[in-house]
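User: Hi! I have a protein structure encoded as tokens and I'd like to know what sequence might fold into it. I'm fairly new to this, so please keep things simple.
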């Protein structure tokens, strides 16, 4: 059995107001082993190269079809519900 993967929808960037690429779905592999510090540089890393791989898909169905076709065990992380915070400019002065 292959290394499990998760399929999720990109969240909105908290630093910007736009929703660029939030309609995309991402297939990302779960880490197979824990990262450990390199003795020379101190950087964290592992010998697992699959955690560097991130595949983008236009729809959830495309991502699931790819995982099934390639025999990748996967689980879908549901997209968080969008909540709108409706606020008037006058609310800043209450």
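Assistant: Happy to help. Inverse folding works backwards from shape to sequence: for each of the 94 positions I chose a residue that suits the local structure. Here it is:
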């Amino acid at each position: 059995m292959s290394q499990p993967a998760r399929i999720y929808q990109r969240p909105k960037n908290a630093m910007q107001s736009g929703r660029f690429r939030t309609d995309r779905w991402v297939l990302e592999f779960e880490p197979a082993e824990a990262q450990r510090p390199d003795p020379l540089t101190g950087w964290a890393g592992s010998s697992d190269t699959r955690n560097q791989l991130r595949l983008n898909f236009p729809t959830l169905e495309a991502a699931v079809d790819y995982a099934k076709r390639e025999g990748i065990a996967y689980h879908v992380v549901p997209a968080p519900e969008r909540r709108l915070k409706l606020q008037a400019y006058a609310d800043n002065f209450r």
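A useful reference point when you look it over: Helices lie at 60-70. Feel free to ask if any position seems puzzling.
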